[in-house]
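User: Can you help me understand a structure? I only have the sequence.
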Amino acid sequence: MSSRYRVEYHLKSHRKDGFVDWIKGLLATPFVLHAVSHDVDDLTTTQRVRSQYAEIFKDIQNLVANKIDFDSRNGQLEENDDTEVRYDLMGKSRLNQLVPTIGSFFTELPLEKAFLWEDSQRGISERRMVAPSFNDVRRILNTAQIFYFVDKRRKYHHNQLKLVTFDGDVTLYEDGGSLNSSSPVIFYIVRLLAANIRVGIVTAAGYDEPVQYEHRLKGLIVAVHDASDLTMEQKHNLTVMGGESNYLFRYHENDEGEFGFQTVEQGEWLLPHMTEWKLSDMDQTLDFAEKTLKSLRDRLHLPGETVIVRKKRAVGIVPGEKFDVATQSQVQVKLEREQLEEVVLTLQTTLETFPPARRIKFSCFDGGSDVWCDIGGKDLGLRVLQNYYSPHDPIKPCETLHVGDQFAPVGSANDFKARLAGCTLWIASPAETVTNLRRLLAD
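Assistant: Let's start by predicting it. Here is the structure, written out as tokens:
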């Protein structure tokens, strides 16, 4: 019988990814059928399991390709008045029917090849007691996306990939940390720039001045400044999009030896529909969110040290600090996982019915120790960069890759919206980011 925690966890639909869970379910059948004792011919069993797993991923690969074709043809019908043709293509792709929550795919995914590679590294088909897990599937999806871009580069001798964006915390550095000169990810970001790939850090950290970003990314900007193999144009291809999609900064340096991030005025990068948002609607949305957070702080009996922080384009609830008698020092107050989830989900659903919030876009997310409501979202952040770097021919989603750690809960993970604007890698640590970049840039 499952534990109570496991039962409750699986009932939390907002914490699950439908596509990953569906794949896990498909893999469960061959695993169960071949979860035999080790006194039989284990090599034969492994070969059979590997073959069945590979066949499943091949079928999923074909379903993804079919969905891309289906979505493309249906998209073309928006400009087609032929009712009969439109009727023929109405409905859903096979993958949409099987996984109703599935989003868009911007590239095909060589999933069979990715599985075989991951299996050779991790021995997935060798296991008899532990079925293919969420992390197994997540890594296979990442590997397939990397293989796609690498294969395209080798075939056409140039990068289809034009823009790579990163989340900050847990992606480039540890939660609450910074990018210092010893970080191994810096080497690969510089290599991306050297390959004429634009690089953007799209973070929820919302500062309207560049100095705070310069402090957190000091190791990176020093490395870019010192990189003798980078042209000035390549260096300028490093940007920071702060507050999800509210503040844009671009790397710059001058002849006096000064370097860092320079503010890009909103008039140079705002998307057309973002210019239509009224300041009053944004302010009222944040006012209402702040009022909701105060109510939740009282209702959930959160610690007295918990603080509500209001910024120009965001409002959040953070744990604060208290004096610990045992250590004789200030320590951060910890909010329980259930409290954070209750706050972010209540905030999200409450704002969805608030008229001013419906006239703009906003994002509510659980940062792991705090909860924030931002104006905009990471999908807009990516689209801003796609247009800013190439205003006359915007970078396409199939030419964009976003690396982040918060994709799972629809209502509380701010990287989730990035799936609307580009391809993604779902990582779990800065070390995993480095591993994936190394493979992405491999000769």
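Now, to help you interpret it: Residues 1-14, 79-89 have pLDDT under 50 and may be disordered. The chain has two domains: 4-150, 159-443. Let me know which part you'd like to focus on.
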